[in-house]
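All the exercises in this workshop are built on plain-text protein records. An example says more than a description, so a record of this kind follows:
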Amino acid sequence: MKKLEIIIKPEKLEMVKEILDANGINGMNFVNTMGYGKQNGVIKSINGKEYKIGFVPKIKVETIVADEVVETVVQNILDEVNTGQYGDGKIAIYPVEDYIRIRTGERGNAAL
């Protein structure tokens, strides 16, 4: 099993949810967050004045997936979410030692 941590633009959340659903991933968590990457923030023009905004709104999606679907899910996200612009996001993949459904006590893939 792997944990996917997916950082995306807020407007891409529904698209990522649809990709996860289409690949049989039964759940996800997300949080609103702020951050910056290579673009080091953005410059906004308000009433003719330019302001540097150092942190950009993002969404962090977390989910646990079976090893056999990781690459498919990642490729689907890359294909659909990529705009070719700075700020498209990142995906981190972490190994998961165990996963337990509290309600039933199921473990591993059975708990997914």
